[in-house]
Amino acid sequence: MNRSMKLAGGSMLLFALIFCSGALQAQEPLKAVVVTGGHGYDKEPFEEVFTVIPHGDFTFFPLQDESELFEDISDWPYEVIILYNMSQKISEKRQDNFIELLNQGVGLVVLHHAIAAFQEWPEYRKIIGTKYWLADTTTEDGVFHPISLWKHGVDMAFHIEDPDHPVVAGLEDFILNDETYLGHDVEVDNHLLLSCDTEGSQKEVAWVRNYGRARVCFIQPGHDAHAFNSPIYRKLVAQAIEWVRPEK
C-alpha cells in the first residue's frame, strides 16, 4: 500500500471516529494558528493532524524571533491558539498581548514540548497549569527544583479520567508510543482528563483549565509521527481544539 492510500485510510477512520461520537458538529470554519519554533519536529505528519480536521482553517506560524506573533494583536484573526513551540523570549508587551487574547476568550491548546516554553515568564505556568524545569539549578521563590526528565520511545498507557468531558468523548484507554515527561509541577486546579501510570511518566498527562475568559487544554503526548499518525491522537487534538473554541 502506498503512502497516499495509507493517509487516505487514516483520514477516513478519523472522520468516522469524530462524527460517530457526535463530538464535533458542522458549523462555521474555525480559524486557528498553530505556533512552532524552538524545537524540531516531524513537520509533514504533524501538519496532517490539522489538515484533516473538518471545518478547520489553520495557519502554521513558525516563530523566527521566539514570540513575534504576539507583537501586534490589533487585528487578531484567530479563535484558537495551538502552541507546539519551545521558544523562550517573550517581551513584557508580548506577554500582555498574549494575556489580553485569553481575556478576550481566545482558546488555547498546548501540545507536548510547549510545556517548556517561556521558562522565564512566571505567568505561563498559571496559564497552562504546569511548569517543566529545563535546568538543574533552578530556584524559584526560594525553592530548589531539580531538572525535569524525559524519555523517548516509550509505550505509554493512557487512562481516561473523565469520559464525560467533550475533549475525550468517545475515547477509551489506549497505548501510544511517545515521549514521557516527569518531575514537572502541576497546578492543583487542573481538571484531569488523561492519566498515565507507565514508569517514567508523570501521572497527569492531559487536563483542562480556565484562564481569564479562555478555555485551556494541555495534552502531553505528541512527540513524533507515532502520535501524529494515530487516529486516537488526532481525535483527541481535534476535540480539544473544538472545546477551547469560544462560543458565539
Descriptive notes:
The protein is α/β, with parallel strands linked by helices. The chain has a single domain (3-244), classed as Class I glutamine amidotransferase (GATase) domain (Rossmann fold). Helices cover 26% and strands 31% of the residues. It contains 6 helices and 13 strands. Strands 2-1-3-4-13-12-11-8-9 form a 9-stranded mixed β-sheet. It has a two-stranded antiparallel ribbon with strand order 5-10. α2 links the parallel β1 and β2 (56-62). The longest helix is centred in the first third of the chain and has 19 residues, at 3-21.
CATH class: Alpha Beta
The number of strands is 13
Summed up, the domain count is 1
Give the terminus-to-terminus CA distance.
43 Å
Strand order of the largest sheet: 2-1-3-4-13-12-11-8-9
What fold name goes in the CATH topology slot? Answer: Rossmann fold
**Helix-strand makeup class:** alpha/beta
Output the helix-strand order: HEHEEHEHEEEEEEEEEHH
Question: TL;DR of this structure?
Answer:
The chain is an alpha/beta fold. It has helices at residues 3-21, 43-51, 92-103, 123-128, 225-228, 231-244; strands spanning 30-37, 56-62, 80-85, 107-111, 130-131, 138-140, 143-145, 149-160, 174-182, 185-186, 191-196, 204-211, 214-219.
Question: Which labels suit this protein?
Answer:
single chain; two-stranded antiparallel ribbon; 248 residues; 6 helices; nine-stranded mixed beta sheet; alpha/beta
Protein topology:
Layout: H1 3-21, E1 30-37, H2 43-51, E2 56-62, E3 80-85, H3 92-103, E4 107-111, H4 123-128, E5 130-131, E6 138-140, E7 143-145, E8 149-160, E9 174-182, E10 185-186, E11 191-196, E12 204-211, E13 214-219, H5 225-228, H6 231-244
Parallel strand pairs: 1-2, 1-3, 3-4, 4-13
Antiparallel strand pairs: 5-10, 6-7, 8-9, 8-11, 11-12, 12-13
Helix pairs in contact: 1-6
